[in-house]
Write a structure and sequence with these properties.
mainly alpha, 9 helices
Amino acid sequence: MSYRKRVFCLILGQIVSAIGIVGMVQANIGLDPWNCLHQGLSNVTGLSFGTCTILVGAAAILISFLLKEPLSLGTVVNVICPGLLIDGIQALRLIPLMTTLRGGILMMLGGQAVLALGTYFYMAAAMGAGPRDSLMVAVSRPLHMAPGTCRTILEITAVGLGWLMGAKVGVGTLLSALTIGLFLQVVFNLFRFDPKTVQHDSFAQLWTAFRGVFRKQAPEPEDAPSDLPAEKL
């Protein structure tokens, strides 16, 4: 894809993912696995929920880096943008809060499907995956496992650790842990996308490419008028 299309996919992925995450929250049947881990860590350390979210994301990035998973612009964007978009979507009240178990389960499953689609979009941009997605791919390579399977293992691990540290585990937590990997793998297979084969551009590569794009768009300077008199015939 051209860099314009890749930037579009990166931005679209953030928007779609944020919609999916809000849907999972509005399901109202339990925290998703990673937020379960954040809450448990907050219980044990006394740190704020937001601080624990940053620490877990930083740990995921560090592990991915040690496993030689490239980190780039998309990784940074994925840390900052979803939170802003989620706050905006919730402020507009675009997705209703579920009040029944049946409605909550349907909303949770729908949110996961949308989140998986958004994940595909920003990973296909090849500008660097998000912290948890980078960890999923980084772990899947040495283990020779499908990324979706590794994601399921990571989600279950996050739930287990959060529960041991006193986090609230509900039906939605277990449902999310068991099915998010499946949704991701279905979407990847649908688009014939293998995240393990994607070569994400580094910051230096993206900077060079964007400079080239801007230079091409810059208007060509007009020829300077000549001070010499016109030749007589």
